């Protein structure tokens, strides 16, 4: 088996409009396609990261809660590469989002930090 890339990451949100606004208006991801699936009472929004379709945002009625902090078993977090972490943290702050203190990766010397989406999903931004 030879993988060529990660195709997408699927995120189920508890408040579709709130999460859609967060990912589109705050993080700046570009909507590619939005569909409502009546048989599932569910929206699906495909989002683009820097010209590549990579995020699927779903709504489902009453999704179960899941542990979502970075050290929980399972998928640890979603990480985005960024050119200027200070600018990104300032942008988040302007939107009322608090990021953790910027840290330095001891192995690469690169800056990184974490913040959360509206459902508490840990998101990392990594400079470089």
From TrEMBL:
Superkingdom in the source lineage: Bacteria
CDD domains, per the entry: VOC_Bs_YwkD_like (cd08352)
Record-linked InterPro entries: Fosfomycin_Res_Enzymes, Glyas_Bleomycin-R_OHBP_Dase, Glyas_Fos-R_dOase_dom, VOC_core, YwkD-like_dom
A GO molecular-function descriptor: metal ion binding
Occurrences of domain VOC (ranges): 5-128
Keywords: Metal-binding
Gene3D superfamilies: 2,3-Dihydroxybiphenyl 1,2-Dioxygenase, domain 1 (3.10.180.10)
SUPFAM superfamilies: Glyoxalase/Bleomycin resistance protein/Dihydroxybiphenyl dioxygenase (SSF54593)
Cleaved signal peptide residues: none
Cross-referenced NCBIfam families: PRK11478.1
Protein's recorded name: VOC domain-containing protein
């Amino acid at each position: 088996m030879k993988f060529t890339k990660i195709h997408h990451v699927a995120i189920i949100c508890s408040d579709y409009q709130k999460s859609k606004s967060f990912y589109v208006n705050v993080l700046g991801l570009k909507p590619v396609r939005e569909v409502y699936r009546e048989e599932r009472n569910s929206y699906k929004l495909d989002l683009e990261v820097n010209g590549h379709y990579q995020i699927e945002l779903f709504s489902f009625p009453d999704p179960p809660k899941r542990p979502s902090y970075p050290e929980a078993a399972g998928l640890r977090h979603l990480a985005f590469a960024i050119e200027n972490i200070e600018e990104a943290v300032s942008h988040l702050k302007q939107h009322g989002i608090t990021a953790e203190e910027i840290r330095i990766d001891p192995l690469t010397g690169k800056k990184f930090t974490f913040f959360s989406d509206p459902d508490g999903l840990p998101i990392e931004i990594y400079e470089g």
